[in-house]
Amino acid sequence: MMDLLMEVQDEDGRKLSDEEIIDLIIIYLLAGHESSAHATTWAVIFLQEHPQIFQKAKEEQEEIIRRRPATETGLTLKEIKQMQDLSKVIDETLRVACLGFALFREAKTDVNINGYTIPKGWKVLPWIRSIHLDPEIYPNPKEFNPSRWDDRTVQPGSYIPFGTGSRLCPGRDLAKLEVSIFLHYFLLNYKLERLNPGCSVRYLPLTRPADNCLARIKRVSPTFT
């Protein structure tokens, strides 16, 4: 990747400066590590705050273990694809938590939106939170409700945790895979007790509890056979 960043040039032959390369590397680290970690944190928080949803997701994981052939010793991609309830939990987490605050775009032509003109060359920041928490799109938008994803057809532009268009995040499937694997083992084996459940939330650079989710983790005995 470093070689590519050092060699890439635009149509005028200009290469990236050292400062620009450093910025891009930091962005890759942030997007590839911090975002998935924060999404996992919020999923655990929401599950602990909603015991019925927690139990439903846990029972799904237990059923996966029960159906697992004796010859298998670990989680498989086939099993992850069977996690329909957990997938909805993750989708709802990404909607409510709104980890990314905005998208960064540039108008390539003059654009007219509801009578307003955005001139060519202007920088545009679509505000993700205003979309994910729009009551016209999501009734009771601040409510954590994974069942809203039951048989839901997502309209273009209404759900954009990984961006949209030609700049859609290339790591979106990997991120959901990472979160799914963590939650599978967490639901089966652990519980979280936050020490400051009512603490405030910070939104930059990523949405997170002000205390970084200071908590006690308790191991629980398996309830499945």
Protein described:
With 225 residues, the chain is α+β, with helices and mostly antiparallel strands. The protein has one domain: Cytochrome P450 (Cytochrome p450). Helix content is 43%, strand content 11%. It is built from seven helices and eight strands; from the N terminus they run αααααββββααββββ. It has helices at residues 2-7, 18-49, 51-67, 77-80, 84-97, 128-132, 172-189, and strands at 105-106, 111-113, 116-118, 123-124, 190-194, 201-202, 208-209, 215-219. Strands 1-4 form a two-stranded antiparallel ribbon. Strand 2 (111-113) and strand 3 form a beta hairpin. Helix 3 packs across helix 7 (172-189).
Map the helices and strands.
Elements (H helix, E strand, L loop, with lengths): L1 H6 L10 H32 L1 H17 L9 H4 L3 H14 L7 E2 L4 E3 L2 E3 L4 E2 L3 H5 L39 H18 E5 L6 E2 L5 E2 L5 E5 L6
Antiparallel strand pairs: 1-4, 2-3, 5-8, 6-7
Helix pairs in contact: 2-5, 2-7, 3-5, 3-7
